[in-house]
């Protein structure tokens, strides 16, 4: 996401960034009630909280190494922001992108005194780490968005299909959309996106009018657009949801589906991916005016500006997730609650103020994030429904 940041003097900028850091490192409100205490450690008030961060720093894939570096830098930035407010120490452990090593490093971290684990990055490694320390009472705040691994002592912090689908379905329902056509690839992500949309639309009371899948090849995708258009003529959908992202055929779909007869002037387009990620595609017929969910632009601007100031480069979106993991632990510990690292402390109904907006961990290990709903007008991202500032008036 790229947003313009207003120019300001150096001193004023420093003050604004300092204020942003303070806001990011806080629970939304002081804890009151909440889920019953479950697995996790109780604080005795006498020791520094030990945080282990597990990342694939030496993975064979260089791109994965780069993602790990972004995550490590964000975690260290969160620790620096916590200094003077919470007594915490952080140790980074290298999983090398391997599940057995992730399990080994999780066990080593606990042996060396870790009271909570942030990471690993990918679902398989996070699941392995969680299982390895399941009997220790240590929670694992994974950076993954795969809800299949959530539960027990494992939480997922990444943006999930279900959370995005819930925001889009709620907004679509508010706008009077009741006949949905879902278009997805017959891949694991495509089918997961389809399932999330079906659940979200059912919860809103919307009727899913039709579902069309396609094999993940260019030819079948092209052929599928005619099938989708024919199906739409029969069911007369008023909204079509696309699960594809820009790496998964979205530009081709956004060009061909309107040409096949699903007119964006008559049928609302919406998608689970962040359609603001590729400005060069903003001109495509289905992208123009389409709806998508995104993290709070205001919070994201603030975090991106701070990361740029500290490290001299723009962060990958994953950095905000890693920051949130460490910051949530710090915010929970700062309340003085002895159950800060238990399920009770980590699943506050009030949630936390995160790097890209509010979020809260659910008792089942999944995450709920406060998202904005936006559209593309011309070459600009326009927010239609701002991200909520608290969970007091929303809930899915």
TrEMBL record:
<keyword id="KW-0732">Signal</keyword>
<dbReference type="InterPro" id="IPR028082">
    <property type="entry name" value="Peripla_BP_I"/>
</dbReference>
<dbReference type="Pfam" id="PF13458">
    <property type="entry name" value="Peripla_BP_6"/>
</dbReference>
<comment type="similarity">
    <text>Belongs to the leucine-binding protein family.</text>
</comment>
<keyword id="KW-0029">Amino-acid transport</keyword>
<feature type="domain" description="Leucine-binding protein">
    <location>
        <begin position="48"/>
        <end position="377"/>
    </location>
</feature>
<dbReference type="InterPro" id="IPR051010">
    <property type="entry name" value="BCAA_transport"/>
</dbReference>
<protein>
    <recommendedName>
        <fullName>Leucine-binding protein domain-containing protein</fullName>
    </recommendedName>
</protein>
<dbReference type="GO" id="GO:0006865">
    <property type="term" value="P:amino acid transport"/>
</dbReference>
<dbReference type="InterPro" id="IPR028081">
    <property type="entry name" value="Leu-bd"/>
</dbReference>
<feature type="signal peptide">
    <location>
        <begin position="1"/>
        <end position="29"/>
    </location>
</feature>
<keyword id="KW-0813">Transport</keyword>
């Amino acid at each position: 996401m790229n947003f313009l940041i207003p120019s300001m003097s150096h001193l004023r900028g420093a003050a604004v960034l300092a204020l942003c850091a303070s806001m990011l490192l806080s629970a939304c409100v002081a804890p009151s009630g909440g889920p019953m205490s479950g697995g996790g450690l109780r604080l005795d008030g006498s020791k520094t909280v030990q945080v282990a961060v597990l990342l694939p720093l030496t993975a064979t894939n260089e791109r994965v190494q780069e993602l790990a570096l972004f995550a490590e830098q964000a975690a260290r930035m969160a620790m620096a922001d916590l200094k003077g407010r919470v007594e915490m120490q952080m140790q980074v452990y290298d999983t090398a992108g391997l599940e057995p090593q992730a399990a080994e490093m999780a066990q080593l971290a606990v042996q060396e005194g870790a009271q909570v684990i942030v990471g690993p990055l990918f679902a398989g490694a996070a699941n392995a780490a969680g299982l390895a320390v399941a009997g220790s009472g240590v929670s694992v705040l994974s950076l993954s968005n795969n809800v299949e691994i959530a539960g027990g002592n494992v939480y997922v912090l990444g943006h999930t299909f279900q959370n995005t689908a819930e925001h889009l379905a709620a907004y679509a329902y508010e706008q009077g959309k009741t006949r949905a056509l879902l278009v997805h690839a017959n891949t694991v992500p495509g089918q997961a996106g389809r399932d999330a949309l079906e659940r979200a639309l059912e919860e809103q009371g919307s009727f899913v009018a039709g579902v069309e899948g396609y094999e993940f090849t260019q030819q079948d995708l092209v052929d599928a657009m005619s099938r989708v258009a024919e199906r739409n003529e029969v069911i007369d959908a008023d909204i079509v949801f696309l699960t594809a992202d820009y790496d998964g055929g979205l530009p081709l779909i956004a060009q061909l589906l309107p040409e096949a007869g699903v007119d964006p002037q008559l049928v609302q387009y919406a998608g689970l991916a962040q359609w603001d990620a590729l400005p060069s595609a903003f001109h495509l017929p289905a992208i123009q005016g389409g709806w998508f969910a995104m993290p709070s632009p205001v919070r994201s601007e603030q975090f991106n500006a701070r990361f740029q100031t500290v490290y001299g480069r723009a962060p990958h979106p994953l950095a905000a997730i890693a920051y949130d993991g460490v910051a949530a632990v710090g915010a929970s510990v700062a309340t003085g609650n002895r159950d800060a690292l238990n399920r009770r402390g980590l699943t506050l109904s009030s949630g936390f103020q995160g790097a890209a907006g509010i979020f809260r961990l659910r008792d089942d290990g999944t995450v709920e994030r406060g998202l904005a709903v936006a559209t593309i007008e011309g070459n600009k991202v326009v927010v239609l429904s701002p991200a909520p500032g608290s969970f007091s008036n929303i809930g899915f």
